[in-house]
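Task: sequence design from structure.
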């Protein structure tokens, strides 16, 4: 499927991806109910009609992102950069200049054109290491990681990447991490996110605290007028508390990182992937959202 999509003209491929996502949402196929639940949590003040519009546009963006996955490795660095406008790149360069060894953690989310995230940074000439979640379907995971790695980035599986990420930072690599998905209580801490406590991975904050690496938020926005064009938006490095073995500092850092993700989502909610069961893990005694239980097919 990825190969076939990559053969289509760009405009036709993106239109097909948007149509597929739009149809998926309107037909109420798997994960659309979960997305509606999430939108009600985050935007209780919205009407149901407005949440439906946000849901459809979010799945349109997801469809276009799958098309961009098909394009990875089929576009030269020059072709990638021709469609991207950079804002705030000086924040990344300043963080690299101030970092021990030049290594910087670039924090993002499943937002906008995130499948192009690695391709954009490597096309710009930055060495990049990405920590990714290994999927239950080994064959699918192999296909997706191989396609993403064609950008020139190094991919490390989450759970066994600790030594690799420290080495990458020491060698001056950028380390890309996504901080917008649910984790078990043994992997994260509860912090406010879009109006409700969400269990959020604490490892990235611990890594920054132990290595001294700055954390620079970066998000790829899709141009509203031309979905084939993008804006890579960088923000100043977060003011990380560096006290080691300090639970209060760790919690403060995770909250700060989560606020950066939340601010971007609130500014452009249609660009975030609402289908993830973000509030599945809850503190003891707190009710869980009634996400639909579905067999995993991915």
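Answer:
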């Amino acid at each position: 499927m990825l190969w076939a999509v990559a053969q289509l003209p760009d405009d036709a491929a993106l239109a097909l991806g948007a149509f597929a996502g739009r149809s998926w949402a309107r037909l109420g196929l798997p994960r659309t109910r979960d997305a509606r639940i999430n939108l009600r949590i985050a935007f209780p003040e919205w009407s149901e009609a407005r949440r439906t519009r946000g849901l459809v546009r979010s799945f349109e963006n997801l469809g276009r992102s799958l098309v961009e996955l098909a394009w990875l490795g089929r576009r030269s660095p020059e072709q990638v950069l021709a469609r991207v406008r950079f804002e705030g790149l000086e924040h990344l360069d300043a963080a690299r200049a101030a970092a021990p060894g030049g290594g910087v953690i670039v924090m993002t989310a499943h937002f906008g054109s995130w499948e192009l995230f690695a391709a954009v940074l490597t096309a710009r000439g930055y060495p990049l290491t990405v920590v990714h979640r290994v999927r239950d379907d080994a064959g699918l995971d192999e296909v997706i990681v191989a396609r993403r790695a064609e950008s020139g980035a190094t991919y490390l599986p989450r759970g066994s990447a600790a030594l690799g990420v420290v080495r990458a930072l020491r060698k001056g690599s950028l380390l890309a991490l996504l901080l917008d998905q649910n984790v078990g209580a043994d992997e994260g801490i509860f912090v406010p996110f879009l109006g409700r406590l969400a269990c959020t991975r604490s490892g990235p904050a611990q890594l920054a605290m132990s290595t001294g690496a700055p954390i620079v938020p970066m998000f790829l926005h899709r141009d509203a007028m031309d979905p084939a064009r993008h804006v890579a938006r960088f923000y100043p490095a977060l003011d990380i508390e560096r006290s080691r073995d300090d639970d209060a500092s760790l919690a403060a850092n995770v909250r700060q990182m989560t606020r950066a993700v939340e601010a971007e989502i609130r500014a452009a909610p249609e660009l975030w992937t609402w289908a993830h069961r973000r509030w599945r893990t809850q503190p003891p005694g707190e009710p869980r959202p009634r996400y639909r239980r579905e067999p995993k097919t991915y």
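The mean pLDDT is 91.
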